[in-house]
Amino acid sequence: MAKYDHRSIEQVWQERWEAEGLYRSEVDWSRPKHYALTMLPYPSGDLHIGHWYAMTPSDARARFMRMQGYNVLFPMGFDSFGLPAENAAIQRNIHPAIWTAGNIERMRTQMRTMGCMFDWEREVASSDPGYYRWTEWFFAEFARNGVAYRGEATVNWSETLQTVLANEQVIDGKDERTGQPVVQRRMEQWFFKITDYADELLDFGSIDWPESIKLMQRNWIGRSEGAHVDFAVPSGSTIRVFTTRPDTLWGATFMVLAPEHELVDELTSDEQRPAVEAYRAETAARTELERLEDEGKTGVFTGGYATNPVNGEQVPVWIADYVLMGYGTGAIMAVPAHDQRDFEFAHAHGLTIAPVITPEGAEPLDGGAMEAAYVGLGTMSASGPLDGVPTNLEKGRANPSVAAAIDWLVENDAGEEAVNYRLRDWLISRQRYWGSPIPAVYDEDGEIEILADDQLPVVLPDDVEFSSGRSPLTTHQPFLEAATRDNRPARRETDTMDTFMCSSWYQYGYLSPGFDGAPFDPEEAAYWLPVDQYTGGAEHAVMHLLYTRFFTKAMRDLGHFDTAAEAMRAHGRDPEGAFDEPMRALRSQGQILGEERPGDSVAIWGEPDGDGWIASRVVVVDGEGPADAALAGELRRRTERTMQVAGPDGPVRVEVAEDATVEIPSIPGENDVTQLKHHLEIQRMSKSKGNVVNPDVLVDQYGADTVRTHLMFGYDWEKGGPWDSQTITGSHRFIQDVWRLGMEAYEPGAKAGEGDRALRRAVHQTIAKVGHDFESFAFNTGLAALMTLRNEMLAARKSGSVTAEVWGEALESLLLMLAPVAPHMTEELWRRSHEGSIHAAAWPTFDEEAAAEDTIRLVVQVNGKVRDQIDVPADSNDADLEATALASPRVAEWTDGKTVRKVIVVPGRLVNVVAN
RNA sequence: GCCCCGGUAGCCCAAUUGGUAGAGGCAGCUGGCUUAAAACCGGCCAAGUAUGGGUUCGAGUCCCAUCCGGGGCACCA
What we know:
Blueprint: H1 6-20, E1 33-38, H2 49-67, E2 71-73, H3 83-92, H4 96-112, H5 129-144, E3 148-158, E4 163-165, E5 170-171, E6 174-175, E7 182-192, H6 198-201, H7 211-221, E8 223-232, E9 238-243, E10 254-257, H8 264-267, H9 273-285, H10 288-293, E11 300-307, E12 314-319, E13 331-334, H11 340-349, E14 357-358, E15 378-380, E16 390-391, H12 400-411, E17 415-421, E18 426-427, E19 429-430, E20 440-443, E21 448-450, H13 477-480, E22 481-483, E23 489-492, E24 496-497, H14 499-502, H15 506-509, H16 522-528, E25 533-537, H17 544-557, H18 562-570, E26 586-589, E27 591-593, E28 601-609, E29 612-620, E30 631-639, E31 642-647, E32 650-663, H19 695-702, H20 704-713, E33 720-722, H21 728-743, H22 756-775, H23 779-799, H24 804-818, H25 823-831, H26 848-851, E34 855-862, E35 865-873, H27 878-886, H28 889-895, E36 900-906, E37 910-915
Parallel strand pairs: 1-2, 1-25, 10-12, 25-26, 27-33, 29-32, 34-37
Antiparallel strand pairs: 3-4, 3-7, 5-6, 7-18, 8-9, 8-17, 10-13, 11-12, 14-15, 15-16, 19-24, 20-21, 20-23, 22-23, 28-29, 28-30, 30-31, 31-32, 34-35, 36-37
The structure holds one RNA strand.
């Protein structure tokens, strides 16, 4: 028998599939379609285990759907614009285009070893001018129709990256890529009006997405219901505020504006001006992070007053940085009695606290005596016409006091009902080179002109220098020099687009790369859209996944799917709802974390140094160290020459002297301190932590089929978990077992036929189980079922208890079910006895009769405790089961002297006799 | 601080609508093969489900509280 040699098998089949065009997907209206999509990678240059974990199970799912009879599209491409290419250009003096092309080439080669059914003829790379031509075109379309606009706003500026960032790219006041603080700046930039779609984006009714991701998007959009209220100021202007609690307006005793608010100048008295100016200057100089880290509530009085519209009272206007210019109107009414932040501010600055909600069944609150804001149930009080209206904890109009207050505001012309969102418009400008150019020019008066379609694409110039740190586009004369439509001189826009723009429409790019008249061929779109199953990482929950939904909705509203809808109708398919959402179903894989590793056991000799030691000699030992050592134990951590060694009474700090000797018996030659292995915790893989698992090494050792199998078997896919280098052997044994089952001829024994029924039952139960599990992304349990079948078959072969026919059915079914997971090995075995590819074959047919059990094991309980187990015919009815149970001598034993009160029968499973 | 998800053999991980806690894998033990080891083949072992209460004939599953781990949001008016 030929030994299982994954190296030759896998390479041979990858080449043959390619040559046969097995994974070309073409429109075929006679068959149902399935568009399976997995997130495209950034071409960083090396495929890591995370890519395998994301892509190969997605591939198995796509293959499974193909075996279910679907015409499957499963494309792949590269999200190839972005900062790392530019950093490489600066650090290594390589042009981003060359660096990127090299990485794509390398990753494509690595990706082929995964054995995925990617249709490479449909590959796109977002940095390819043939692709970004359409990214620009979408921008132009959006700009012409008011979806894109240029506006001034307070934006996040990263000094490190020399660019602005979208709100979504800033976490805790720090840029999410580098962790460096960002500062707030007023700048004129390009935005997309994603806020126009806020309400529609909150509607997940038509899509099957994970709850957690829907929740993250809901939180991000942050819809809150309330009212806009206008406070008049002496100059005649009004300060508009947004509040979710208009019912507490009568308790608004002061106002707070964001320091950047436009009315601050007007309101500030001469007396207060120096303090206000100083505070504003101080705020502007601080980063978002520093503002957040502030413990207390700082702020200064402007000297100005505004009129509370509900009672005509003059309330002082303050500025404070706890009010953000970027949320609501940048101004709040402060109700210290019922809002904790306002309460703290009032306390810090000696402002009036006026309670206007009285807790249920209690005396009215005393503002001077309160220790915290009251935010509970109660009734309105000291609120003029609304006294006595109850308040609950519901949001918006669902709260009677809020509803009454809104009605009052409307009737008295003091405000209006309003909805506010946390979501801001999507800032897409980036002051970088390696991105899609923005097709706009500015004439000599600074007027914007969007380029006509025949001017596209604006191509990035190749001859650029990256020395200054600024985008080379800003100093590239030939690029800068442009003209308006009527041929007046103009300056070209030098900002490029956020790379999330490129990935917002790539699912349409795959439909027809190279198509000329439009971003995609409507005939392809009519058949393939929408994406039926999307897979990818949850880290994109509020960026890519929100942007692409917005993008599709905006495209729909601008009519970019109209031709496709027409084509759909022509083929008899109803386009209703087909273009409201880009991805009908989404599943998110978890993350593979680094493997836990014990550190070396070390013995050290040296001089005491405070609580620790200065080591002159460090030796790696087995178990306990020599008795004369100063200290011995596991190396828990090490940074440079400072080690933390687990001593008998806890961690001990050890400095390794410059001239210390380090001896590591397993590493010959001279050793140094950096070769000592320290304990690794379970955490994300990263090069700096040294816990990266290289898939190429695993593929070389075990083969892609084993790696694929193991990634699907070893984890709950949507959860992920730490890598474990031991357990992959189990998956490898499984693959080898199946290989042997397929290669070794089956010899029926003397008792052939006796085991037929049992093996067929196992086979068909497995078909049902695996089909269900693969459908629902439960690859781990599906594979466990296949391993069980393997065990049954090994036993059957050993005993020779089944006929050759039944054996053949079992083997064929096993190969078919394993084909999506281990495509190479199953193909090799399949083609030994079949014409054509196993990957074009159908999923085995489930035979319910064959799967049925003859007998069931009836569990008999007395008062909920198992007292007997009886095998009964599977077709027994409830009365039979009850009679069987009551006839059991064990039951009689346990009910002796008691009266049977009740008998509970669970059909086909259990009888519980209740007696006392 | 608020919101989600999770906690089951030594480890990873299963357990239809509440119905015998165990499918699968790893490790371990043991026998075979081998000069020996690895590999391979056969067999065996395993927890009462984080903790405390409740509902129920019956709870890993439902409810309440607490602890631990992971994730998201966070001066959001």
